[in-house]
User: Fold these one by one.
Assistant:
Number 1:
Amino acid sequence: MRILLVEDEVKLAHAMKRALELQKYAVDVANNGKDGLDFAIGEEFSLIILDVMLPEVDGIEICKRIRAANIHTPVMMLTARGQISDKVTGLDVGADDYMVKPFSFEELFARIRALVRRPAQTNDPVLHIKDLTLDPKTFTVKRNNELIELSSKEFSLLEYLLRNKNTVLTKEQIIAHVWNYDSDVLPSTIEVHVKHLRDKIDVKGENSLVHTIRGRGYTIRE
């Protein structure tokens, strides 16, 4: 899953980026509002985390503009302000959640999981197909109740496929959601990761869960 973090406090942004990457998220960081707005409108993300007080363009204005552009990506506002009026303003312009600094990373992770689940309208955080399960909270993947060890990118790839079960995803979509903007990823890289993923999750004698749709991309289905 790919996250955009727009935060002008460089040390905090760096700490959050590292913490989120340890949670297996791909993270792009912008340290001012103009760059953040360009990222938010020009790229695809699963979640946008916006500081309110930003140079050039503030977080409230960024949220207004991305909603005006018909972008429905979940937005979490992040700020040192704690007044109710600030929270109301952020939510009124289209933010989905609001956190006040300082905060714990554990709470941040929990809120991110809740925001990502919300569009699917499900109370079950565990993703599954047949006897394969993926738990985004514990980062565990099991097939027939047996634990499967995946690399960070393999886990993110499988999670993206499962969140879009029965949907054909192009290589470009996979790159956009699993890798960050600075990554130099070739289409052949996707092929390698898909092969490694199949090697780990497939059961001998059964059809693969991950299907190649020639000329289009990949999908996961029974």
Number 2:
Amino acid sequence: MRKILLSTVALAALAGQAFAADLPSRKEAPVYIAPAPVFTWTGFYAGVQLGGAFGNTNLNLPAVGYSANLTNNGVFGGGMIGYNYQINNFVLGLQGEFNGSGNGSSTKTGYGYIGKSIVSVTAKENQPWFASIDGRLGYAVDKALFYAIGGVAFTQAEPSITYALGAATATAYKNSKSLTGYDVGGGVEYAFTNNWTGRVEYRYYGFSGNNGYYGVYGSGVAYKSGNLTDNTVRVGLAYKFGAPAPVVAKY
């Protein structure tokens, strides 16, 4: 009788364990943590920039034998808009920008001749704005982008000349002309977040000369302004529109 009772208890215990094993587990599933989105440089962006320009220009008046080489320095600021497309580590981009400029040359006084009369000439040239349309080619190392940039550039040149012929009262003349040239440079850009980036950049601008005409005491004096150049250093801040969607696991 005792053996039968012990056998019954053992069978009941085994049956209970088997039943418990068949019951659904009440242990809670681990909390899902979505992975951080993978950063990409692909997308449209817009931003602002501020910098300094250091260059030179020259102004020639062949008719009076006057020539001056003028420095061309100043501070500039403006905006940019563009698009990047990333392929593996390489980034291709197109960018347009416009900058208002305080660039202006030094004032230089020299002397020339009209006939046998000495002409005192004071020359200066301002550059109120410059703009460009550029291509960018970069190499991305995570959130850092090292790039080269270059394209077609545009600017406004405003040379001014003051003449004094002998003891006559000085007469000032000013002209303005749009110039087309090129720009080339490079920089590094870093993404602080998925949307905000900052950059440091060097750019060189070169513009073709322009010919103009000033009237002097009823006669004419032609001028030629050429080799207008700008070496620029700038910092910029840009906002990249859109962010990559987070990766969501499917169950």
Number 3:
Amino acid sequence: MTWGSQEGSGDEPEPALRGGGLPLPGLKRWRLRRGLSRAKLARRADLTPDYLFKVESGRRGCNPEAAQHLADLLRVDLQDLRRKHDGAKEAQAASTEETKAALRSARPRIAFRHVHQAYLKILLVRAVGSSYAAMDEWAIEKHCEESPWEEILEAVRARRREIGFLGEALKDMGGLQEDPDLPAEVRSFLKAVLEGYPDLDIRLLAAARRREGSEEGRRALTKAMRDLL
């Protein structure tokens, strides 16, 4: 979601770092203006406080999808988080009625998103025994970065089973567009999950192959990529 800029600024957004991570020099400023602690914002964004601390302090870039989610939570344009704000009073928390009302209006949208993911996770675990398709892209990318190639292959195979199950289930319901009883939020969420396949899986395998040092692992990952093409 794109929010209107709440302050004029002539500063250009900080460029993306090598690897695609986004510097967010304005994150701490806007977090404090919204009256949020680092821990509270981390919980709402499904991130760790340590991850947010490193992003706020400039020690690392932020995953683009996570950065957009943070912007949505803070009700600012992503470009505002990417700009430096000289002379900002970062220690002052906002407490106006307008801010409080905006926070209240944001809560249902945030809650719905997490509820959809939670229900999808329960559904997939019961149906096929795994729930990788319920994870945000940045979360499964992080999971794969920390996993050996065998586990990455299993995650991709599990996602294939999960997507297949979801596709069949939606087909039985009449599809995403035809079912009038399917709420728009759920329809949009499931559509995004299905449309991410198999592009996300190919990216996961390609990234793992670049990191893999063994010939056996590279061959297995290459074969899995070909199977998805």
Number 4:
Amino acid sequence: MQGMRNTNRITEREYQAFQDAYSFFNAKLFGNSLPDLLVTLQRHAGAKGYFAPERFTGRMGNMTAHELALNPDVFTGRSDELILSTLVHEMVHVWQETHGTPPRRCYHDREWAAKMKGIGLQPSTTGEPGGKETGQSVTHYILPDGQFGRAYAELAATGFRLNWQSVPFNAGERKKKTASKTKYTCPTCGTNAWAKPQARIICGACYEDNGEVTFLEP
């Protein structure tokens, strides 16, 4: 397993960790029934991860491969167990694609939800008890003493660990960038425009309609 490897090459080390985790959970939770695929790190707003069937094609030969992506922006503050539960969440989508009835894109249906519960992850739209199990946007929480929890404990006992996460976005920088553009609205017709603070903007619509010079207000 990854914890037994000795390498300072961080790309190899981290991606190998996710490959090792995928292979481990494939064996423990899916009976080695899932296909090989590409695990990637992708920043995707509003998602901890996603599954995209046949996202890659071979450059030499007639081959295709699925993509399983994890969002490193949400690693910060989450344990390895929680991060890998997202990996397994997406692996259930792989299972449904290859062994079940794939739903429409990104939808979480009853077949998917039943498989999730069967391996120890409870689907929930809120991430808490009581949330809906199906829908377009569904997360999960780990069931106590479920198959996933026991499998993760076995993996962690090998010395497995993840090593990298995204640097948290600077909230002050976000605020500064937001403040660099101010919304202005015409008090007469409601036309909107965005410009730097303290800008003087004349409403072209009002001037064209009645010749009046009306300044937009922030």
